[in-house]
């Protein structure tokens, strides 16, 4: 039995503009999930600083991209509990990667900002991960390299797309 995603089928060479049906989307999703699940831990294990967990990296990245944020806004952006983010911010502060400052709009509130040390650490971590990934890409065949390049717009769109929430589970 062949899959609509098998690279050696004649159909894969033809460009099809019809959207996938639910079954094809589910198969693609599973294959993408499995590939990511295998790739990411290996990239993290190769030289990733032990104190930088994926959630801490996400917090640093959010602060880098969106500037100073209240802890509650950071929690909302990350989609995790306020208490969890509050503990994480304490750890990031302990590592010397962030600064706390009064919110100029509300002196009772505190803003969390990435400091120069945190920004340098984040950029170094990103460069190391990109280097490790580039080494892996260099090992691919030319066809796979081009396929990966061609898939980037879809992967980038997928990365910014907000998931549909089941009825009654929306955040307030």
CA-CA gap between termini: 46 Å
Mean pLDDT: 84
- Ranges where pLDDT stays below 50 over 5 or more residues in a row are 1-14
> Which CATH C-level class of the domain at 54-120 is it?
Mainly Alpha
Radius of gyration: 20 Å
The coarse overall form would be globular
Q: Supply the helix-strand structural class.
A: mainly alpha
* Percent strand: 5-15%
Work out the helicity level.
55-70%
How does CATH name the architecture of the domain at 54-120?
Orthogonal Bundle
H/E series: HHHEHHEEHH
Number of helices: 7
Oligomer type: single chain
Q: So, the CATH homologous superfamily of the domain at 54-120?
A: Winged helix-like DNA-binding domain superfamily/Winged helix DNA-binding domain
**CATH fold field value of the domain at 54-120:** Arc Repressor Mutant, subunit A
How many strands, what sense, and barrel or not for the largest sheet? 3 strands, antiparallel
Q: How many strands?
A: 3
Query: Can you list the strand order of the major beta sheet?
Result: 1-3-2
Protein described:
By secondary structure, this protein is mainly alpha-helical. Helices cover about 60% and strands about 10% of the residues. It has a domain at about 55-120: Orthogonal Bundle (Arc Repressor Mutant, subunit A), CATH 1.10.10.10. A three-stranded antiparallel beta sheet has the order 1-3-2. β2 (about 100-105) and β3 (about 105-115) form a beta hairpin. α4 crosses α5 (about 80-95). The longest helix is centred in the N-terminal third of the chain and has 24 residues, at about 20-45.
